[in-house]
Amino acid sequence: MRVEFVRGGTEVLVSANREGLRYLSEVCASLAEEEYEPHRPPHTHVEPALNTAEPDSVPLEFLLKADL
Question: What's the Cα-to-Cα distance from 2 to each of 15, 26, 40, rounded to whole Å?
Answer without folding.
Answer: 8, 15, 29
